Amino acid sequence: MYEAARLKKMFTEAYPDAGEPLVCRAPGRINLIGEHTDYNGLPVLPMTIDSDIRIAFVQRDDGRVLLRNADEAFPDREFTNGPDIAPSEPGAWENYCKAAIQGLNRHFGPARFHGMNLYMAGTIPIAAGLSSSSAVVVACALAYLAVLGKTLGRDISRLTLASVLAEAEHYVGTRGGGMDQAIILLGRQRCALKIDFFPLRVEEVPLPEGHELIVCNSLVRAKKTGNVLHRYNEGPRLCKLICALVEKQVRMNFGSEIELERLGDLWHGHLCLTHEEVKELFARAVPDATTTLEEAADALDTTPDEVRARWLDDLPEPDKGFPLRARMRHQLTECRRVEAARDAMLADDAAELGRLMNASHESCARDYQISCRELDYLVTIARESGAIGARLTGAGLGGCTVNLVPTAIHETFCDKVDQGYYRQYLAQSPGTYPRNAIFVAKASPGADYL
Ligand code: GLA
Q1: Ligand 1: does its nearest atom lie under 6 Å from the Cβ of 330?
Q2: Which of 180, 196, 265, 367 is catalytic?
Q3: One pLDDT digit (tens) per residue for the chain, 450 residues
Q4: Residue 37 Cα, ligand 1 centroid: separation in angstroms?
């Protein structure tokens, strides 16, 4: 952890004449259950962790934003603030800062575009599915809010800021939902949050007594702006196409002109359908296991080019067509599991929570195809080592698993996973993989100034 005094000292070494900085922090997160549901307006159940991104900052009056990072992997960067900030090349780390500033500029419409000197240091493992990138966005936003003279909680609520930043982060190219920004800003100590969207709302959910949530890093890098970007965006894109097909079905069934913005609108909003009714509607709207581009175009009375332009963009078409049925099944079952997990946690029923986590992993792997060999193996080893629930967490395709483990077997669990996964499966020797590859998740307070 970078204590505020140490970070200020590092700031002053990087910018000797800049004056005394302020400091803010934003934590990482794990998700207990509810994967790839947020962008459809369906619930999630994440919690913060106690590693974070910290920024020391001061205002500049010339509009220039200077970025320095304690980690040499992130080179010095600079850009100029203004009404339209052009993104740097995909994957460039300053894009997260640009996203935050642009988002707040759009929200507040400031008369002047101030600059900042920023010095950033973090302890969240990178490209591990623990939301280090959204933590950067949130921390940069807190810094820029202060420079704008705005007070968090008075000029903008945490809920509104989370929604603004969820939208703002699309700037970097990922079509994410609002889970990460919400838990980072609204997370609390010692509990998880059930989060619902549109409108954003949160509920505290207690963690199971006598158990730990242990995070294991598969060490497969899941860089959301790199290799994983297109695979991640496949989820939101296919769901948008499903939504269009279902909307047509709704009109055929009910003869109304109802517009569906996202799949979650079926349960909420004007329609208020029951879960069974949604299931039936889905089965009618998408009758086959896979749907080709041609078939989707026919069903929507349009052309394949239009389907691409409106919903799929450059998503490659698999030989047998897009697996819409399986994607829908995941959405249907996962949103129910989130509700059930919340109830199990309120009843302190760890066994039921574990069962739901296991089922969620299977659904993510089989129906959403966001697991990989390493994650599946890590989950298997964890269950054999005593976890009563084990699943991938976050966007998937690498990154971490989260494991529900009785506190009494902490040592043996960690030893067995260490032996079975890192040493045998990955054939690594101690010292060659990070010491924090396995850690106990401790929910820390949401993002704030120090
Ligand atoms: C990423 C996105 C989130 C969410 C998860 C998957 O973390 O940023 O919005 O979709 O993946 O649950």
Answers
A1: no
A2: 180
A3: 789 999 999 999 999 999 999 999 999 999 999 999 999 999 999 999 999 999 999 999 999 999 999 999 999 999 999 999 999 998 899 999 999 999 999 999 999 999 999 999 999 999 999 999 999 999 999 999 999 999 999 999 999 999 999 999 999 988 899 999 999 999 999 999 999 999 999 999 999 999 999 999 999 998 766 667 778 899 999 999 999 999 999 998 887 788 899 999 999 877 889 999 999 999 999 999 999 999 999 999 999 999 999 999 999 999 999 999 999 999 999 999 999 999 999 999 999 999 999 999 999 999 999 999 999 999 999 999 999 999 999 999 999 999 999 999 999 999 999 999 999 999 999 889 988 999 999 999 999 999
A4: 8
Indicate the domain borders of the chain: 4-205, 226-322
- Report CA-CA distances (Å) from 47 to 221, 283, 423: 21, 34, 29
H helices within 286-440, ranges in order? 293-299, 304-307, 324-346, 350-366, 373-384, 410-417
Q: Is 67 in the pocket of ligand 1 (CB under 6 A)?
A: no
Rg of the chain over all Cα atoms, to the nearest angstrom: 22
Query: What class is the 4-205 domain?
Result: alpha beta
- Ligand 1 geometric centre to CA of 310 (Å): 22
Give residue 381's identity as a one-letter amino acid code. Answer: I
What tokens were used for 277? 């009714």
Please say if 180 is a catalytic residue: yes
